[in-house]
Specification:
497 residues, alpha/beta, transmembrane, Exopolysaccharide biosynthesis polyprenyl glycosylphosphotransferase, single chain, transmembrane helix, Bact_transf, transferase
Length: 497
Amino acid sequence: MTQIIVGGIEQQTVPSVPRVPRPRQRLQAPPAQAAPAAGRPVPAVTVVPPVLSPRRGTSTLATALDAALALALAGAAAALGQLSVLVAAAAAATWPVLLWTTGHYRRPGLGESRLTQPLRVLGTGLRAVVLALALSSLLVSVDTVDTVGLVTLLTVFSVASAVISMTGVGRSRPRVVLAGRPRDVREALAELRRTSGHEVVAACLTRSSKVSIGDLPTHLGFEATSAVAAHHRADALVVLPGARLTHAQVRRLHWSLAGVGTDLYLGTGLLDVEPQRTRVVSAAGVDMLHVTSPVLHGPRRLLKDVVERSLALVVLVALLPLLAFLCLAIRRESVGPALFRQERIGRHNVPFTMFKLRSMGVEAEDERSRLTAYDEGNGVLFKIQLDPRITPLGQWLRRYSLDELPQLWNVVRGDMSLVGPRPALPCEVARYDVDPQRRLVVKPGVTGLWQVSGRSDLSWDESVRLDLRYVDNWSLRLDLSILARTLQAVVGHRGAY
């Protein structure tokens, strides 16, 4: 096993060297050499590239734009006689400083929401309003209404600028260096590239690996981690679980990275745990990450149940004319009942009868066995994109998710929730492993993360992971977010077949 050498990390701060132009292409590994002798490890790229200048922690362009905006608005207010020149100049100078002190100009950190910057500006605007009100009460020369109006205009324009940056105009993806075991690096690389929100630029491996990591530049050991991060202009270094660094090594690594302007992130090994469920605690001098238990019972769950059942009843009554019309249309198109009843598995493995508008012929269940060879599902679910059993009207109903409207009655009865995991068939539950069983600790939902994230286009593993993420991280805010995204998913028809 290759020893991790970290003793000299604290000495890897950036030396005073001339600025080197950033290369236009990735570093290439050295030419392939002859195979090493038996028992000798396969070397990784060990040559540390020249260190470039560290990345800056603030956006000079954004600071200049906000300063120019504050100066222009304050100058206009002074020219129109709304504010005195002294007050206008003070406002123009104070606004960029307030934004800077609240961290508005810092590089976005890993995992930050795109709404972080606009919300931060709004918070700064509220603080500025409070400051303006306080000054107006102390200084007679300061007009309260005009000062608050100027602060409001500054906040609106700065929020608009942050929103433009949020949408991707001139926005660059965070550059990341991964550090850890080769297997962990490969898995993290695949996940980060799948989400496409980050750009992995290099990797530092604890040991050499015979398995390729693609065209990613790799370096053996952590002794030159800060130099690697500086050369690739990395925003962050992510130390993955399994790196086995001691407390002192992590501290030295932090010191080293601070000298090149790269943030340090330590992987916890947790999967799909929302930040609000975690907090860092210290006991006997040891820092630990505390993860709170999922909310499966209690007042918030009771509130969810009461609100959803009441809302489902109101919506169901309002949609009765539409449901009656659709039922008549289904009966006219094909022989058989308009409502389709099917047994599903609910909370704690309790079966219930789920209602849907019939979108197939009455003999659809009998014809399923002969269509097994055409199954395009995700390994557990049976799905055919061009299912011949679906009627023309049924295709339209599925496209707009109208066939699921009768499930509102299941919500009223208490069998289902408006938001929750996908309701499973008994044959599917019989094939469940340990992880999928976790879906059954809460009620299934009419909609959920599985619906707003792709529905039938998802693989089985992705579907399970989304449902488990919902179960473990449930909150009323998450439910509201899913309900808002459901409308977009229905209109977009993604995965609806």
